[in-house]
Design brief:
Number of helices: 12
């Protein structure tokens, strides 16, 4: 199966700004995921390596073995969601066979062998009706995407003293650009994670969801966007998630995705944390674009027009002081809120939007990363809103430019 390519979408231009109180409808729960802490490296990606013929043959043999085991498990009526947790390894192997040039280095080839062996072991455990992968703090599960039938992985990190009988908050994490993080590398890295490059996120009793996003997921747009929501839905089937305490987080390219998803779905999360998320400036850089092109960009790229949705979504934009390309996106969103009548107050590195729950932070003397002080401030924000939980507001300010993104709590646009 070939990698899904993003499709461009035409756009309608609509704007609604509702200030009239109505009877609140229950909030629709949003996707959840967990954070992958750690600074993302910028610059040109390292060249990939090509697997040798004998290495490709080894991958093929292991993949075919998993496929055969999956077929047997299905025939014997094994539990479907557990079979999916095995089948994801066969899908991962097939992706490597279609793309044998996507290995970052020799280690990633060895990681692929280890991961495929893990898939074989899972199948044998399920044949014996004794699956072990649902245990432990770090887990890998999978779901079948409604987009194209792909079986895709997601990572779970459980909190200390996790009690499945109690609803818990969910942190949804969108990773940064990772050009060689194939399915096997994602699985291996999650289960063998090193310490974070950035200060770790405070444990507030949350489950963390790491979304795979089809490697880079078009900056978490198109299929990447839906992967986030499908991952959240899959987690909610397996774990006791509190629908009113789902937090969206992302850094670097994941920050780009968090800008896009949070501002287009302002009623899906109790809070959003967006780090170093660059958003395209094509509209500003291309004065030759036609009106129909600009209207599409207004949907997919330009956070400025959507920034007013922070009015009903507690959101923190944070960037390194010495990371100007990424910092610029937060500055644009903040400036738009100021134009809308929500001035920024505070210190240069810690500003609040008056009248809207927007926070704007800079990690001083920091490049593409997060300082300990900013991490502490972000954790305080996530704890505050996670403790409060999400509620339907009496007052809504909601801009949209398309019926593709047409709702915020009890306001919806249908045409």
């Amino acid at each position: 199966m070939k990698r899904l390519l993003p499709l461009a979408a035409a756009a309608l231009s609509l704007f609604v700004q509702t200030i009239v109180a109505q009877t609140p409808a229950p909030a629709v729960a949003a996707p959840a995921a967990g954070p992958r802490a750690g600074a993302q490296k910028q610059g040109a990606p390292a060249p990939s390596v090509q697997a040798k013929p004998e290495e490709v043959a080894k991958i093929k043999a292991k993949t075919e073995q998993i496929d055969a085991l999956v077929k047997d498990l299905k025939a014997k009526g094994a539990k479907a969601e557990l079979v999916t947790d095995v089948e994801v390894y066969a899908h991962a192997g097939r992706m490597l066979l279609e793309n044998p040039d996507m290995f970052a280095n020799q280690n990633s080839i060895e990681h692929a062998f280890t991961t495929l062996d893990q898939g074989i072991e899972r199948a044998h455990q399920l044949q014996a009706n004794s699956p072990q992968w649902n245990q432990g703090k770090r887990q890998i599960h999978a779901y079948q995407s409604a987009i194209d039938g792909a079986v895709l992985p997601y990572g779970i990190t459980l909190p200390e003293n996790y009690d499945p009988s109690k609803p818990v908050r969910l942190y949804v994490w969108l990773h940064g650009r990772q050009n060689n993080t194939t399915e096997t590398e994602f699985i291996f890295s999650h289960l063998n994670r090193r310490g974070p490059g950035n200060p770790p996120v405070a444990d507030q009793g949350q489950i963390q969801l790491d979304c795979f996003g089809r490697i880079n997921g078009a900056g978490w747009h198109w299929a990447g966007e839906m992967d986030v929501f499908e991952s959240i839905a899959a987690v909610k089937k397996r774990f006791n998630i509190d629908d009113q305490r789902i937090v969206l987080r992302g850094f670097s390219q994941g920050g780009e995705g968090a800008w896009h998803i949070s501002l287009h779905y302002p009623d899906r999360f109790v809070a959003a944390e967006i780090g170093a998320g660059t958003v395209s400036r094509t509209a500003q850089q291309r004065p030759d674009l036609k009106p129909f092109q600009l209207s599409t960009l207004r949907i997919w790229e330009n956070i400025s027009e959507w920034a007013l949705n922070v009015h009903n979504l507690p959101l923190a934009g944070h960037d390194g002081e010495n990371d100007p390309g990424q910092l610029e996106s937060s500055l644009r969103a903040r400036a738009q809120l100021e134009k809308e009548g929500f001035p920024s107050v505070g210190e240069r590195d810690y500003l609040r939007s008056q009248g809207a729950p927007g926070l704007w932070m800079q990690s001083l003397a920091t490049g593409h990363g997060t300082s300990a002080l900013v991490r502490q401030r972000l954790d305080a924000l996530l704890k505050e809103w996670g403790d409060k939980g999400q509620t339907s507001p009496d007052r809504i300010r909601f801009p949209t430019y398309t019926t593709r993104y047409n709702r915020a709590y009890w306001v919806s646009l249908d045409g």
